[in-house]
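Hello,

Our lab assistant flagged a job as stuck in the queue for most of the afternoon. It eventually completed. Since we weren't sure the result was trustworthy after the delay, we are filing this so someone can double-check. Below is the sequence as submitted and the structure that was eventually returned. Let us know if re-running is recommended.
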Amino acid sequence: MIFQKPSHLFTKIHLKALRTNNFQLLFALSFTLFINMLSFAQDIPKKSPTIKPTTENDSLVLNTQDIDAIQISEKAQDSTLKDSVKPKKGLLEHIVDYKATDYTSFNQKKQKFYLHNEAEITYGDMNIKAGDITIDYSKNEVYAKGLIDSLGVYTQAPVFTQGSNVVEPDSILFNTKTQKALIYNSKTEQSGGTVIAELTKKENDSVYFIRRGKYTTAEDLDDPEYYILLRKAKVVPGKKIVTGLANLFIYDVPTPIGLPFGFFPQSEKQTSGILFPTFGEQSSRGYFLQNGGYYFAVSDYVDLAVLGDYYTNGSYGFRLESNYALRYKFRGNFGFRYENLISSERGFPDYSKSTVYNLRWSHSKDGKSSPNSRFSASVNLGSSTYYRTSLNQVNTGNFLNNTLSSSVSYSKTFQGEPQVNFSVTATHSQNTNTEQINMTLPTFQGSVGRIFPFAPKTGSKKGIIQNINLQYNLRGENRIQTTDSLFFKKEMFRDAKAGFQHSIPLSTNFKVFKYFSLSASTNYNEVWTFKTINKYYDPLEKKTISEEINGFDSFRTYNFSASLGTTIYGMFDFEKEGKDPKIQKIRHVMRPSISYSINPAFDKYYDTYEVVSADGLTTSDVEYTRFEQGIFGSPSKNFSSSIGLSLSNNLEAKVKDRDTTATEPKKITLLNNLNFSTSYNLAGDSLQWSPVRMSGGTQLFKNKMSVNFGATLDPYALDNNNNKINKFNIDNGGSLFRLTSANLTMSYSLSSKKGDKKDNNNNDPSIQENLRSGGRDDDLFGRSDDFTSQRFDEQKDNKEEESSTFYNFKIPWSLRIAYAVNYSNSRRQNEISSHSLMFSGDIDLSPKWSVGASSGYDLKNQGFTYTQLRFERDLLSWRMNFSWVPFSSRSSWYFFIGIKSSILKDLKYDKRKQPDLQL
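-- returned structure --
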């Protein structure tokens, strides 16, 4: 490459008088004649004999008329044919753009071009920015360096960019013809890491050779807290780094951790690779390797990680973890875990062996991809003891789960008048304490939208007739009830129950006396079942025999109900002339409602059988219905006619705003709801009043505290045997109502920062792991502490104010408290059935130190619940974590220190003591 600068040319013309020199003219003429004479003073060669031409007559004579008829053959030229000889490249293949702030100058004698201060040159995909750039186009070389300012500080260091590679050296010497370069004290980013080299030789666009390079992921490249010294290395940007002898340095102090040679894969895309395991020891299972395996980068849309654990006593486990996503379509994750657990040694009395497994699947669909259909899945099923006995500490925050639940559903909507909807759902519910499992495989639901047969085609609907509407609903279930030991075995499907329920509700509503709203409805219900029962008394065995009868059967019921309600507003105004009270107004909203329902008796579906007493003489008839074990209930044989009463309350206040610039008072909520409800059975002969149920809730302290409470008040008294009698409690010498049960729950979340800390916790990966496993959306039961997984490496926000790294006068903190108490007195037991306080919190002692804890206290049994203590130290490019469960059967601890960057996440040290679980 040659750079030229046009020069300025000046021509000087001198005018002189002309004159004739006769002597010189005569000499020139004589010399010319003399030369001509010498030129022809040679012998003339003799002429050779001439050959006379001979003529022959052509036997083919063409007429001039035949010439036009001759077709002249022309060789077709291929328009795509290219010349085999490639043209020579010009001196410049691309346009050269250059600029500088101070000056640009060209030295024609030295063939050099100079750019000074904020100089920049762009040539093709190459770009150089530096304080000073010198171009020697006689050697096709470019030399770039920085500038030293008046304070002696080296500024405007070169930045060399070629394609996607960026190099920031102290200086660079680049040959534009060979594309080679010498780079001094360079800093090059390579797939999340940075290579700092004293001398780098750029061979071509894809190969670099470095000497004494430092590979690090530190943010402070001038003084990195750690680096791997690469004495000799070959770098292929975006692909690999191959090194010779390399070892780890921490703050320029060498460590014995090193390799005789190394291979560091570099890629901007997902690549497959080995996942290194962690090691440890457990007293009952021996030494172990955990979370080792292989990662498969299947495609840009799905990946797969195969992980395994192995213990020296023979216990093992494996896991499959996969994530998938298709933008604007769907996303989800899948996981399967299996563990074979062995405790103690064969032959010892405490020897045991068991297998546990867990299947998780989460799938969500983008609503915009198909607005009229939706598919979703949330699956969490497996062994009831999985979370309590699992070897992997990722399940720490879930071992207290009492319920596993799953749901997979597909729904479809057909637009039109009327609108038709249907859905197919498979559900699963599992109690991990009783190991009871309830499933529906599947549940079908279909419905036809509301139809107003008497509504006008235009305008609003008015009156009792125009508001008449009806629907059609269909529900079908195949319900399975089994236990953990029979899960997915043939016995599980043998006792399955199936049935269909059809319902057609007909309703209307209208205004009464302007302020009251009256609604009336009737409902027709038809149930289809495929299994019924038959009961009879066996006198030989002296017991009632119940046998199943397979076959189609059905029953039909109907009922009627009506309700009348209104809304009452009350305002308490505290404002007075000349006074500006803090509480200005309180608004009370009441919504009273009275309802009536009637259910006929369907005793035609009931049969009787005789039972002989022990003396063999007395007999009695027992009524039963063949539908009593149906999944949609059984028809009622008793006539029911009842009146329901309910009252809901809401209290809001307007208070003076502390902000003096506010023009309107601030509205706060005193009570979100305060509800009372009861009913009176007109058809009953005794105990006609139902207990009064009271419930309420509110938000306090800027919605940071949530309070919910409830109570049950019974108007009837108890006899001496603590059985309810048909006598009011006030007539029995007691109060108007008898408190039979009460409950109170409170949760409080506060922090030193503005905003709700709980919302921020929902983005924490460990909290998300708890939710996917069916746990809580907070850390009151602890957090998952698998620190080796990058999923739980919480990236903390940078502190806006860091006055000192040694002392933080504003200590960030957060606290979450949950309180619950339940009272029981249905049979004069007068006891607190449960009483607990749970809390969790985090404190940042300094910008780099943080501690946290999750615990609770059982106020009834006087003891601490599951407790977890957490310590974390931010070591810039490294992180250090320590988790400790100090007591209980899950007493354990876990220490971890490692590099944050995913490229070097296997450069770590961890040590743990796992709990000794009893299977």
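-- support follow-up --
The delay was a queue issue, not a problem with the job. The result is valid. The longest strand covers residues 516-538. The longest helix spans residues 22-39.
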